[in-house]
Structures are given as structure tokens and as C-alpha cells.
Design brief:
Elements: E1 17-18, E2 23-24, H1 25-37, E3 43-46, H2 51-65, E4 76-81, H3 88-108, E5 112-117, H4 125-131, H5 144-164, E6 167-170, H6 179-187, E7 196-197, E8 204-207, H7 215-224, H8 233-243, H9 276-284, H10 289-300, H11 304-310, H12 336-357, H13 367-380, H14 387-396, H15 412-424, H16 429-441, H17 449-459, H18 466-473
Helix pairs in contact: 1-2, 2-7, 4-13, 10-12, 12-14, 16-17
Amino acid sequence: MAKKSKSKMLDGQGDLILPDANRAVEDIYEEIRDVYQSDDRPWVIGYSGGKDSTTSLQLIWYALAKLPKTKLKKPVYVISSDTLVETPHVISFIDQTLGNIETEAKKQNLPFEGHKVQPLIEESFWTNLIGKGYPTPSVTFRWCTERMKIKPADRFIMDKVSKHGEVVVVLGVRKGESATRDQVINLHKIKGTILNRHTRFSQAYVYTPVVEFSVDDIWMYLSLVKNPWGGDNQELIELYKASQAGECPLVVDDTTPSCGNSRFGCWTCTVVGKDKTMESLSGSDKWLKPLLKYRNFLAETLDPERKKVVRNFKRSKGQVTLKHDKTGIVRGPYKLSFCEELLEELLKTQEQVRLMSGDPDITLIYNAELHEIRRIWRLERGDWQDRVPRIYKDVTNGDLPWVNDDGAAFNYNDYSRLEQICDAHQVPTELVVRLIEVERSTMGMRLRSSVYEKLAKILAEEWRPEEEVMESLKDEFEV
């Protein structure tokens, strides 16, 4: 990793030769200027704050700064992804950096605009994990990427497409990062142009200015060329050395590898076996230790024996599914009782982090997510006991402006009475709750033909006890 003192870092450094890319930086600046001026499509730059995206943005900044102001006619949108489960200091870094980019761009009369993209509350990590019971992401079920990274970026891109007709998406991807990524890059090349086709949008194109760079080229450039919006490249270099951090780029498709070992990745990431970055950072920032503890608590639920305890034996559609190798069943979502535990421990972790860091504003789960989790539990998971407000008050000794009537008509006492009746008649309480909820939700509707279909789907689910189901399936298993 190349390293120079800050005093020797120069603006632009156009005469610098990057050995592995075999190009002078000035040639790259010229290429960027040519691509920028070749059409009217605005640019969308994916910026994470990591080494590759920082290099890409710096190259573009210095290249455009040399153009006459009359030729800077189209905007350059710089977008950063906030998955809502970033580490607190990363969120602070993103907010500060985007602010600095906008401030410095206005000073220099450059067309850069900073924007932060986030998932919708109904697609957030905690809404899905704690609300719906989605198991923590794994290599085989990486549901988080689509909802938390791809869709937010897509919404921003399509908003600009609807406004401008077409856009160019600038990504800090490099060849050699993975065989799959290389295949995608080569597959979507457009003959006769430096641009690639976007993997999903016909109105979007992709430009990759550092695609031929090696890691050494990246570090050489960052070591020798001053950050033009006031950032500190030497600090970035030291952070990578200290935390073994990797890049977590703007994700535009599911071929992007997990960045759970990255300083710029989600603190909840369980796709990687061990979060070395969080372990490293928590060594210096002790208040991060509760985050690492909670992340490991989530990771434990991937253990096959632990799955049997915390996850339903039925899938989300109510059916039991055999594994392909017939060695067992595919476990379903987390049990509601375990989701209660997850929420309680998360709120405790948030309280610990606030106390240890001295910052009462650090937020691990947002109020809007708590309201959405409550709605899901009450209306979709039969939580007549309305547990979210109770858990919140028990942990925080506070309260939120909960909605008094969000459509749920039953309470804890109603559930207790129903449970007694169901036990007496050996009928699953959850089944009756679900049937009642269908009837209640359709009350007052003029056309109720869909009621019978909904009731039939519920009745078609597996309602036998797990032990009985497993006994009936034992002949299907291969020992």
C-alpha cells in the first residue's frame, strides 16, 4: 500500500503513471471529460466512502474541474447507501461527506449533488427480521441485498430516468475482484463505446473509470492525490490498515459479494462467518462491543440445532418442506416468541451503546420500524397481546405515540379466553386467531367473495403439532 505524507499530496496529479493500469492519470481525466461531454445523460455516482468509490469520485471531480463552466451542463448525482443498519460512525461519516461534497461543489461551481438513499420502512432489516420473522441472512438466503441496497438505488436511478430520459451510472468496480463480476462486466459491454449496458434498465448505462486499476493503483492514486472535497485520504488508508476493511460498493445486482467484513458494511451482517472488522473496531471503540455481541447472537441462529429452537417448522406459506437431500425439513421464519426476544435484546443493545458512547441520539432501530413491526405482529401474526409497546416500555422506561386503533380489535384478555377455549377443544389457537382476523378484516366490505378463498388457504396450511408432522415424515428421510 503506497503511502506519502499529506504535505506531498498534490491536486490532480495528472502526470502520475499508474503502473498496473498502464495509464497516465491525465489520460484518464481526458477520457472522463470525453464521456461526460458525449451526451446529455446525467451521471449517478455510487459512493460508499471506500477506496474504489473514493478514487472514482476524485478522478471525476478533477477531470470536470478542468472543463469550462459553460460545458458543465448536466448534473452529477453522488449517492450513498444507508441501509439503516450501518454502524453509527459510518452514518456520521456519510452525512458529513455528502455535506462536504455539496459545499465544496458550490464553491467551485461544479455540478455535484449529494444524496443518501435508504430502504422503505416496510423493506428494512428489522421490519423483515423482527416483524416478519425472516431468518438472519446467510450465503444461501441473502434476502437483505435486494431490499436494502438494490431497490433504494434503483428507485433513485429510475426517478432520474423519468426526469431526464436516460442516465449514466458510475461505479467503482474493478476487474479481478471476482470471476462473476468479471463475467457481468464483459457480458454487458457495448460495442464501439466505453459504456456498458445496465444489468436491468434499458434507459441506464454504466461507466467504470477504475475498471483496469489494481489495488496498488488505487492506493498509489489516493496516497499522492489530495481529496478535493476536504476528506483525508491518509485517514482512509489508516482505517483500512487498522480494520482490515474492504470496499462496500453501490450494489446494482446480486453478483456483488457481501461486504460484511467491510468498514462500510452493515453491522448486522451474518453472511460472513466472522466479522473481523467489527472485532477490530470494537477493540478501540469499546461502545461498539454490544453491536458485535448482538450480531453474534443473530449468527448463532444459523446453527442447525439452534434453528430447531427459534424457527417454525412450517414455511411462511404454512407448508412443511423437505430438504432436497431428504435429511430433514426446511425451517420457516422465526417464531413470534423469539422475535420478542430479538426486539428486547436490540432495544437493550441500543440503550447500552447510547450510555457507553455518551451519545443519546444513536439509533439502531427507528421509531417508524417499531410502529411497522407492531402493525405486522398485530394484523399478520395474531399478536392480540400487543407486545411491542410493552417490550419498549420495559426496556427503555419510555413510551412512543402508539396508534390507539390501528385495526386490531382484540387484546390480551381476549387472547387468554380464546386460548382456554381452544385448549379445551384441542384446536390450535393460532388457527382460530387467523380465521377471526380474516373475518374481521373484511367486515363492512360489499363484496366478500375473497373471504372464502382466504379462509381456504389458512385451513390448507399444516396445523398438526410438529412432533406429529415429523413422525409422519420419518419414512421420507434418508439416513
